[in-house]
Specification:
9-stranded antiparallel β-sheet; 9 helices; 326 residues; binds BIS(adenosine)-5'-tetraphosphate; alpha+beta
């Protein structure tokens, strides 16, 4: 099988260098504009009803010296109604509905590159939750490639946040069209900006490619230098290289080439300082569904009964059950 290699020179083209053409990997975002565009579009999308935030309360569960943030949903009714509508239309039309193709223009934030654009998450729990979506259909079960990391590097330079990817249904993905996500920090108004970050920082202070001793699920984490004043091309290569190294370390080796199928389900978490990969075996532990944010120490439950179950079982045990034991 021939898989096109990620072609580096494409990445560094600018519109001025190639007037009239859109090459893969061309950066289209005006520097410094993403956070403001997200704020403006959120304000507009709220007023016109395109954005339908989900209210939550939150509590913390302390475990292994970490304050795990747990959000408790107040009302999922709108999202569930949209899910039912999506399934009904899929049945009527005989094919799955895709909310990202075509996307709702009222949720459009910005063109990022010639291959990716940025949308607001329609059912956001945290403000300015961004989706980084491929323009053309690509499956959420494909490995991430250089163009995905180019879009990610551009967005992460603009917004100090936690980027993540739910690689496949067992990793929490509900939409089959490829989308990375980016939530601005902090994840909660009090406490650590990312609950598990102190543990990750402590582990990375000893080794740049390692595991976090306190976390009982299979994972691997690597240091990143995305805050350094490096050329974009170097930051993209760092992300792409680290991804492949981490995937191999957790038993999911891949090239990160365009069109390549992912070797198995996993969650990817990326900040400007580090990247983590967690292989997955199931979407939920009992009633508690987990996506990438769960492995950052930010979990979501439907109601207080599920919160109690999470307390009784222990959040780290839930994460181990949806992932693999170390
Ligand atoms: P996926 O990768 O498929 O899955 P997800 O983030 O886990 O969200 P899911 O859809 O499974 O929602 P859930 O009930 O678990 O992401 C698809 C994304 O597309 C979602 O963000 C979805 O909201 C969004 N979307 C769907 N239709 C859309 C449309 N027409 N236009 C634009 N975007 C659309 O969780 C409910 C919500 O809570 C989700 O927003 C989820 O991101 C968020 N969430 C889950 N866990 C969280 C946590 N621990 N902390 C904060 N927020 C959390």
């Amino acid at each position: 099988m021939s898989i096109p290699e990620f072609d580096l020179p494409f990445m560094i083209q600018s519109p001025e260098n190639s007037p009239g053409t859109i090459a893969p990997g061309l950066v289209l975002l005006e520097p410094g504009s993403l956070a403001l565009a997200a704020e403006r579009q959120s304000a507009y999308a709220l007023t016109c009803g395109a954005l339908q935030p989900i209210s939550t309360e939150y509590e913390f569960i302390e475990i292994a010296g970490v304050q795990i943030l747990v959000r408790i949903l107040a009302n999922l009714a709108l999202k569930e109604a949209a899910n039912r509508q999506q399934s009904k239309m899929a049945q009527t039309e005989g094919k799955p509905q895709n909310p990202f193709l075509p996307y709702d223009p009222d949720l459009f934030v910005a063109d990022i590159t010639s291959t990716h654009l940025c949308l607001l998450n329609k059912f956001n729990v945290v403000d300015h939750h961004l989706l980084i979506v491929t323009r053309d259909f690509e499956a959420q079960t494909q490995a991430l490639n250089g163009y995905d990391f180019l879009a990610l590097a551009v967005c992460l330079a603009e917004v100090e946040g936690l980027a993540f990817y739910n690689g496949g249904q067992a990793a929490g993905a509900s939409q089959p069209h490829k989308h990375l996500q980016l939530v601005p920090l902090p994840l909660a108004p009090v406490g650590e900006p990312i609950p598990i970050a102190p543990l990750v920082d402590a582990a990375l202070a000893k080794a740049e490619f390692t595991q976090v001793p306190e976390l009982p699920f299979r994972h691997q984490v690597a240091r990143l230098d995305q805050s350094a004043p490096l050329p974009l091309v170097d930051r993209v290569l760092e992300l792409h290289d680290r991804y492949r190294q981490l995937m191999a370390a957790v038993g999911l080796p891949c090239q990160g080439a365009v069109g390549e199928a992912q070797p198995g389900a996993y969650n990817l978490l990326v900040t400007r300082q580090w990247m983590m990969v967690v292989p997955r075996r199931q979407e939920r532990a009992g009633p508690i569904a987990v996506n990438s944010l769960g492995f950052a120490g930010a979990m979501l439950v439907r109601d207080r009964a599920h919160l109690q179950q999470l307390r009784d079982y222990g959040p780290l045990m839930v994460l181990q059950q949806v992932g693999y034991p170390k």
